[in-house]
Amino acid sequence: MTYQEAYAKLEKYGQLHVLKYYDELATEEKEELLAQIADMDLALVEACKHKSELNQKGKITPLSAMQLGEIEARKEEFTAVGLDAIKAGKVGAVLLAGGMGTRLGSDAPKGVYNIGLTKEVFIFQRLIENLMDVVHAADTWIHLFIMTSDKNHEATTSFFKEKNYFGYNPDYVTFFMQDMAPATDYDGKVYMEAKNKISSSPNGNGGWFSSMMKWGIVDKIHEAGIEWLNVFAVDNVLQRIADPCFVGATIVTASDVGAKVVRKNAPDEKVGVMCLEDGRPSIVEYYELTEDLMNAKDENGDPAYNFGVILNYLFKEKVLEDIVAKKLPLHIVEKKIPYLNEAGELVKPEEPNGYKYEQLVLDMIHELDSCLPYEVVRNHEFAPIKNKTGVDSVESAQALCKENGIIL
Ligand code: UTP
Predict the structure, then answer these.
(1) 283 touches ligand 1 (CB under 6 Å)
(2) pTM listed for this prediction
(3) CB-ligand 1 contact for 87 (6 Å cutoff)
(4) Ligand 1: which atom is nearest the Cα of residue 361?
(5) Atom 5 of ligand 1: nearest residue by CA position
């Protein structure tokens, strides 16, 4: 992109301050800035002007889950179907590891965090160990696609190389990067993080499939004959990946997507819950759950919105191609954003000072015709690490690993 083109683009979106230091930049730095301007979706930030109108929910009604009793009764049937699909190479796994993990407070990718107590046990290692259980059971390697971002790609890929992929077959591991979105102040003016760099952050975990398309990975998926993609978060160290019983249940029920869910531990627990929204599967976030919904009961007298998602979804690949063209809703999130002040010095704020712009994987569910919420035993499969201490922390995950006989 030429300077003139960059100028025109910035002018269109009221962001000309991005060029404030242009004249004092070295040639290479100028090129970097122009390339970033060319790449960046500046139209996104316009959304902050009508923030309150975004993401209005439709009519919420309950969606029942397949519960533990039924799963146990049909375990053999589901597992056989799932294992067949895995053995036939029809199931791939997608690790979402592009997040910043700010709550954990480490600059390194979350997956390289060592949760070991008597030895090194990295988060990535825990996930690979879990996936290996299925590799052994099915006697076949499973394609693993790992999403990183501009902020952690190099650190993630070199960590896997250094650790020899924790024994996984590198031919079955493919990295790809998600897109970045600009970060702005409350008026939608993009911040600068350096004189030649707009502040940016990963654009949320909802862009994973479009990024896979962009990176040519979807062609690879077709060549490999993969029909199902199990998308999961990096931070749940008890995550069961490509779980044959879950795969089988999703296939047998002819669902477009299966979603692992756990029974909520309190009506106001901070997890998104499965529901129908205007008759289609959806997830209502905990902060969108009204008192009425929180206390609503189903026909058996049980809480009607009682199953929380744990970011483990099995998507039919074919339907993803249909929905990717549709624009997912944008979420505008208040965050602390490092920025250059008027004097051109980098400031790391202690309090939130602006917005990041994200799309979320959970919004994909609403685009699909059918979803199977599939209950799992919470203490066996859900040990998220969001914080250093307290709820959903390294400490709580360590305790849950211990409970499951995992030596750390
Ligand atoms: P979180 O919503 O917990 O965000 O991510 P985070 O960035 O990891 O952590 P905080 O909020 O900054 O503390 C849930 C999952 O989605 C992935 C994360 O890596 C994690 O697996 N994710 C999140 C992405 O892959 N990309 C993103 O842009 C955001």
Answers:
(1) no
(2) 0.94
(3) no
(4) 16
(5) 99
Q: How does pLDDT run across 322-334, given as a tens digit for each residue?
A: 888 788 889 998 9
Residue whose entry in the numeric block shows the structure tokens 């998308």: 231
Residue ranges of domains in the chain, CATH in brackets: 1-39 (no CATH), 53-403 (3.90.550.10)
Those residues with Cβ within 8 angstroms of residue 56's Cβ, 6 or more apart along the chain or in another chain? none
Return the residue whose CA atom lies nearest to atom 1 of ligand 1.
99
- Are 32 and 192 in contact by the 8 Å Cβ rule? The answer is no
Separation of alpha carbons 243 and 355, rounded Å = 37
235 close to ligand 1 (CB < 6 Angstrom): yes
Q: What is the DSSP string of 49-63?
A: GGGGGTT----EE--
Give me the mean pLDDT over the 178-185 stretch.
Answer: 94
Q: So what's the pLDDT on residue 28?
A: 97
pLDDT value, residue 327:
82
How far is the C-alpha of 286 from the C-alpha of 303, rounded, in Å? 14
Atom from ligand 1 closest to the CA of residue 147:
25
Cα distances from 385 to residues 157, 191, 221, 382, in angstroms, run: 21, 29, 30, 10
Please give the distance, rounded to the nearest whole angstrom, from the Cα atom of residue 181 to the centre of ligand 1.
14
What kind and span of H or E run contains 270?
none
Please give the distance, rounded to the nearest whole angstrom, from the Cα atom of residue 202 to the centre of ligand 1. 9
H-run or E-run covering 251:
helix 244-252
Tell me what pLDDT residue 289 has. 87
The model's pLDDT over 24-67, given as tens digits with 9 standing for 90+, comes to: 999 999 999 999 999 999 998 988 888 877 778 899 999 999 99
Q: What is the pLDDT of residues 125-142, one digit of tens each?
A: 999 999 999 999 999 999
Which neighbouring-strand residues pair with 281?
276
Distance 203 CA to ligand 1 centre (A): 10
- pLDDT value at residue 348: 93
Structure tokens at 48: 């902050």
Determine how many CB atoms are found less than 10 A away from the CB of residue 97: 27
Phi first, then psi: what are they for 75, rounded to 5°? -55, -45
